[in-house]
Write a structure and sequence with these properties.
It is a single chain. A hairpin with a 5-residue loop joins strand 1 and strand 2 (78-85). This protein has a two-stranded antiparallel sheet. The chain is an alpha+beta fold. The radius of gyration is 18 Å and the shape is extended. The protein has two helices and two strands. It has helices at 13-25, 46-54; strands at 66-72, 78-85.
Length: 91
């Protein structure tokens, strides 16, 4: 067990490491139902352009792509991290 204020590894570190490696090398199912989901659509590129200005990574990817990105505020400060899924041309 790590001491408070130390930089040592927690006693559960190796267990999480094994789980991480199993997910990385194989297949994983993760329950994300507790996360908020929004579906954004437009009749043109406006939704893509909006997300391009809001997100720190390029989200203008092929349909079916998933991009893990941060969302920034007007000052460029970090607000949250999220996954953006490209479901359609303007979606």
């Amino acid at each position: 067990m790590s001491k408070q204020g130390s930089f040592g590894k927690a006693r559960w570190f190796n267990t999480v490491k094994k789980e991480y490696n199993a997910c990385r090398r194989g297949v994983a199912v993760i329950d994300m139902t507790s996360f908020t989901k929004y579906e954004l659509k437009s009749a043109n590129r406006s939704v893509v352009d909006f997300l391009q200005t809001l997100c720190s990574n390029n989200i203008d990817k092929p349909i079916g792509s998933v991009v893990h990105t941060g969302m920034l505020n007007d000052s460029g400060g970090y607000e949250n991290d999220c996954s953006v899924v490209r479901l359609g041309e303007y979606q």
